[in-house]
Input
Amino acid sequence: MLRSHARLVLLGSTGSIGTQTLDVVERLRKAGHPFRVVSLAAGSNVEALAEQICAHSPEAACIASSDDAARLRERFPRLRVVHGPDGLTDLAGLEDVDLVINALVGAVGLAPTLAALRKGRTVALANKESLVVGGALVKQALAGHGGALFPLDSEHNALYQCLEAGKRSDIARLVVTASGGPFLRFTDEALARVTPEQALKHPNWSMGSRITIDSATMVNKAFEVIEAHVLFGVPYEKIDVLVHPPSIVHSMVEYNDGSVLAQLATHDMRIPIQYALTYPDRPDTQLPRLNLDSGLTLPFETLDVSRFPAFATVLQAADFGGSALAAVNAADEILISRFLAGEIPFTGISSGLRRMLDAWSEATPAGEQVTLERLLDVDRWARALAAEISV
Output
């Protein structure tokens, strides 16, 4: 990838993954590697996007609103500026692009992933919803157009590395690790009193608000199980989650012969991001190394699913199939917003997801045809219901 993946599209450039990706690109360019960011896309942070445009001189940019797009055109008259969901799919499908990096948050990331794959592009994917909500559509696009996916998330990037050592037919199981979040030892009574400030303090990682809350409820870990299933074609019964509070082992693969391969690294997303950009090469990241001489311990424990009911709800939605995950994902976004606004308790996120799945089951006819349009319709319906649902 060091030579062929020179022209990059970065969707979600002002978020946590996006800004770290730009840092990696700059480090690699200074080391002599030929990367160029030709397009940038952001949501509502127009000032941050403007700063990135000044720093990276892309050929095109996308922002969510038409008003912000007009402001960018006035400030950068030679820059091609698009906006909204159509703008994202426009940039994802650009010609003369080597790699599309999808670091968007939410279901808005699905259509750009499909657009890029249908152009035969390689997509470095950090947008969970592309696989959680639209896994079947993504697999169809991969099969029909010759594109490829490369996982950016630390867990799936780790699995990818460990899977290089053996045949898929020799896999005994995939093990996705979980820190347990900030509330691993909380009682049910304590969970009911959790504040947004507490929930936004992840013990190991610095992430956006949604993924941080999802890590606290274990919704994120259920999403990661679904992602692993779609990415690697491994059945759910061969994918386990182990709680690993230090977050040093990012994932493991156990093979039929009893060998267990694990990927270990410090808590820095720039390591998997660089691996996705430079695969199969591994140039120096110039980042702090894992100190193996410091009395390193690697504790693991079974995930107590009864303490994280949202985890089970999400995987039940995966079992239902169809648009169930679109409904649950949309509800999750709205319920998190309501929790952060002080409208519902922390435990209301999990109970709200349960109510949403029940409502979807009652409202969805048998033989549902899953298309992008259907998923987007269910997304809108679920958001409206989640905004009013009693928890």
